[in-house]
Every structure is written in C-alpha cells, then in structure tokens.
Specification:
Blueprint lengths: L8 H112 L8
Length: 128
C-alpha cells in the first residue's frame, strides 16, 4: 500500500491542474483572437490598397474628363469662328445676288423699253 500524502495535497494539485487548463484555454482563445485580428488587419490593408487604387483611377478619370472638356472647348471655338466666316461670306453672296437681281431687272426694263419703241416704229430701223 502506498503511503498517503499530506492532506490537501491532492486538492492543491487538482486546483493547479484546473487553473493550468483554464490558462491554456485562455491562451488558445487569445491566440484565436490574435489570428482574427491579423486576418482583419490583412483585410483592412487590402481594402486600403483598393481604396487607393480607386482614388487614383478617379483622379485619372477626372484628368481625362478635363482634357476632353478642353478639347471640346477648342472645337467649339473653331466651330464658332467657322460659322462667323461662313456668315460673312453668305452676307457678301446675298449682297452680290441683290446687285445681280437689280442689274437683271434693269436689263429687262431696258429690253422691254427697246421692244416697245421698236414696236411703236413698226420694227423699222431708227431714222438717225
């Protein structure tokens, strides 16, 4: 038969064992939390990188939109100048057309007068 240890010694050993198990469980939980924290940090790092890329892309899009706007502004200025020139040429053409109509009307009037005069003389030559 084995000799019995001091009274209370088994209780102390059992209490130490249970305390060690609780500490071990706590350490495992802390390790799981730390692992989740690392995963969360990794996800936050990836999200930050994606956000940075999105901001960079948005900046590039804004720059391209500004360039397109500048090109459109230049094109509009050219179109305005072309329209001004076309308008000026059209006004000149209209003035020339009016002069041509006036000349044609005068020629028609002279021709009609000459015909009437010749008709009045019986289409005989002018007695000069």
């Amino acid at each position: 038969m084995e000799p019995k240890g001091k009274p209370g010694r088994a209780e102390e050993l059992l209490a130490d064992w249970r305390a060690a198990e609780r500490e071990s469980d706590g350490a495992r939980s802390a390790m799981e939390v730390a692992g989740l924290a690392v995963q969360t940090a990794d996800a936050a790092k990836a999200a930050a990188a994606e956000s940075e890329a999105a901001v960079r892309a948005a900046g590039e899009a804004v720059e391209r939109a500004k360039e397109a706007s500048d090109l459109a502004k230049a094109a509009a200025a050219h179109a305005t100048e072309a329209a001004r020139l076309i308008h000026a040429e059209a006004e000149q053409a209209e003035e020339q057309a009016e002069e041509t109509v006036e000349e044609a009307d005068a020629d028609r009037s002279r021709a009609a007068d000459a015909f009437r005069e010749a008709q009045a003389r019986g289409f005989r030559p002018d007695p000069d």
